[in-house]
Amino acid sequence: MAITKDKPQDNKEVDVSTFLTDLNSAINNRSSSNEEQKTIINRFIYSIGSALFLLEQDLKVENISPKKINLVPHSLDWYEGIISIRGTIMPVINLYKFLVDKIDLKKTTKGKTHYLLLDHKDHKPVVITIDKLPEVINLQEYTCKKASTTTPDWFIETLEKGNQRIIKVNHKKLLDQFVSLQN
């Protein structure tokens, strides 16, 4: 098929020009956005009852759907049982039952229980029960307040924005408590 110079190609020349202009504009906007994003710190939080907890940046976490939790007779009430994930046996901890007498924790409406695998570099993996799947927050939108002296040692500080309060947790110390109470 021959193309004549007198006839435009269905505005393809105009479209390419517009595309290149839009592309250059997007690149310029992206580079300025990258400068802004350097100051944005996104992290994940999870919820148990009325409390929100911040996940540490270096903590490996995975949402799982357990097929079967095996009960352990004569165990503590917060110890749900054990589970096998990819051939590794790990404990399942009901975090609401574990925390209810340690911090101000109100039970929200009963919904689906979710399971979160925590793999801390200093501990064997453990599965915890949570009420909502983790969600992302921007830390810069929150102000930090030190924890009171009456809170557990794994409770580092709170992050607050409006009426939302997030507990910054030292998961190593929290996992240490699980281990010490099981022995």
Describe the structure in your own words:
This protein has 183 residues and is an alpha+beta fold. It has a single domain (42-182), classed as OB fold (Dihydrolipoamide Acetyltransferase, E2P). It is built from three helices and eleven strands; from the N terminus they run H-E-E-E-E-E-H-E-E-E-E-E-E-H. It has helices spanning 12-37, 95-99, 171-182; strands spanning 42-48, 51-54, 60-64, 79-85, 88-94, 114-119, 126-130, 132-138, 143-146, 155-161, 164-169. The strands form two sheets. It has a six-stranded mixed sheet with strand order 8-1-2-11-10-9. Strand 9 (143-146) and strand 10 (155-161) form a beta hairpin. The longest helix has 26 residues, at 12-37.
Task: Set out the fold topology.
Layout: H1 12-37, E1 42-48, E2 51-54, E3 60-64, E4 79-85, E5 88-94, H2 95-99, E6 114-119, E7 126-130, E8 132-138, E9 143-146, E10 155-161, E11 164-169, H3 171-182
